[in-house]
């Protein structure tokens, strides 16, 4: 059972408790976010990370942002709420779950506009907790829907971290592995280390090792050789935003992994909740890709690994075309050989 990555502590005046994922696996430290600035900082610096987890953080962040709001009429309250959601939404641009969570909080306030502000604050807290609880169920369902792709003895490559740490619990890509293991299947996993921030080596390796799953760490540039020389049955990764045609943005390096998988006839699966689909964009071309600072590339654990003032390009995500994806595993079912029509037929209007 993964450790809870995000929780709400207390009542409407309470706080968000998160694991500081930047310190794992060396230290399991909890951080408490009591205002909008601290949760913004936690999302931006990847203390809390992974698309579904930042959706939950955005929803809970809306509650901490509004708890001290002095407005006693709905219009003023909603104006402040919109400022808060715009601010939280400016923390990271790619994972659509963040915007999905923030919009859901705005819609909840609007639906309850006739009620006193004190009551709306309580309703918003309940909504944020509901989003967390729903996510836990969604992760289990993704695991259930995907575990048949793994047989006794299957070997998987995964990239970044799409585990319990990236969600309410259990994960998306890792949910498939956890669910297969729970069914008694002996599987093995290669985790790409995932430069520059090492979510694969720091987080995925930690989670799978804790779960007793056979895990081997490789550097990102070892995936092709591993597929050529070892028995690799499939790739399973998560996603941060999936366009209407099935193109999927995920951690930088996922696209190259999909090309390597295609070259070696290894099926490539994406596991993601319906909240990761952005049906307002037709293709992956339109997905905004976060670019982060140069230090993540020029240093490792604070140690300089490049000359001073070197030019750096540091995109945090890339887009895998739907044509490289064998199936997308969601809580509503599996989308085989995804395209716009098949995406619509499985998720309908639910994103
Ligand atoms: O920059 P990160 O660590 O937030 O990137 C996370 C990923 O790319 C995950 O694979 C994705 O969010 C899926 S999490 C279930």
What does this structure look like?
It is a single chain. The chain is an alpha/beta fold and 351 residues long. It has two domains: 6-140, Up-down Bundle (Four Helix Bundle (Hemerythrin (Met), subunit A)), CATH 1.20.120.420; 144-347, 3-Layer(aba) Sandwich (Rossmann fold). Helices cover 39% and strands 17% of the residues. It has eleven helices and 16 strands. It has helices at 36-44, 51-66, 74-89, 96-111, 117-146, 173-182, 199-210, 223-229, 254-263, 295-298, 340-347, and strands spanning 6-9, 15-19, 30-33, 155-158, 188-192, 214-218, 234-237, 241-243, 248-251, 268-271, 277-278, 299-300, 303-304, 317-320, 327-330, 333-336. The strands form four sheets. Strands 6-5-4-7-10-15-16 form a seven-stranded mixed sheet, sandwiched between helices. The chain has a four-stranded mixed sheet with strand order 11-8-9-14, covered by helices on one side. Helix 2 packs parallel to helix 4, helix 2 packs antiparallel against helix 5 and helix 5 crosses helix 6. This is Methylthioribose-1-phosphate isomerase. Pathway: Amino-acid biosynthesis; L-methionine biosynthesis via salvage pathway; L-methionine from S-methyl-5-thio-alpha-D-ribose 1-phosphate: step 1/6. One of its GO terms (molecular function) is translation initiation factor activity. Belongs to the EIF-2B alpha/beta/delta subunits family. MtnA subfamily. The active site is at 240 (proton donor).
């Amino acid at each position: 059972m993964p450790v809870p990555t995000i929780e709400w502590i207390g009542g409407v005046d309470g706080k968000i408790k998160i694991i500081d994922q930047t310190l794992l696996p060396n230290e399991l430290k909890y951080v408490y976010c009591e205002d909008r600035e601290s949760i913004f900082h936690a999302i931006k610096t990847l203390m809390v990370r992974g698309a579904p987890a930042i959706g939950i953080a955005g929803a809970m962040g809306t509650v901490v942002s509004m708890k001290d709001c002095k407005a006693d009429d709905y219009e003023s309250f909603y104006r402040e709420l919109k400022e808060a959601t715009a601010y939280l939404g400016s923390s990271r641009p790619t994972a659509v779950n963040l915007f999905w969570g923030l919009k859901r909080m705005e819609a909840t306030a609007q639906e309850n506009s006739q009620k006193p502000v004190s009551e709306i604050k309580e309703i918003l807290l309940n909504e944020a907790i509901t989003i967390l609880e729903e996510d836990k169920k969604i992760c289990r369902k993704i695991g259930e829907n995907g575990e048949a792709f793994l047989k006794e003895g299957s070997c998987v490559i995964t990239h970044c971290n799409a585990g319990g740490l990236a969600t309410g619990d259990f994960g998306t890509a890792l949910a498939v592995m956890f669910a297969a293991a729970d069914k008694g299947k002996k599987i093995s996993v290669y985790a790409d280390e995932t430069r520059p921030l090492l979510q694969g080596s720091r987080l995925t390796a930690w989670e799978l090792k804790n779960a007793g799953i056979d895990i081997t760490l490789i550097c990102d540039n070892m995936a092709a050789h591993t597929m050529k020389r070892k028995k690799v049955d499939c790739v399973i990764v998560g996603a941060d935003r999936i366009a209407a045609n099935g193109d999927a943005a995920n951690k930088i390096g996922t696209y190259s992994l999909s090309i390597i998988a295609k070259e070696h006839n290894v099926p490539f699966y994406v596991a993601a909740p319906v909240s990761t689909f952005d049906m307002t964009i037709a293709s992956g071309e339109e997905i905004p890709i976060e670019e982060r600072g140069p230090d993540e590339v020029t240093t490792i654990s604070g140690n300089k690994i490049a000359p001073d003032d070197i030019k750096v390009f540091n995109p945090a995500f890339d887009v895998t075309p739907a044509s490289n994806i064998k199936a997308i595993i969601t809580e509503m079912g599996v989308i085989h050989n995804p395209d716009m029509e098949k995406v619509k037929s499985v998720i309908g209007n639910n994103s």
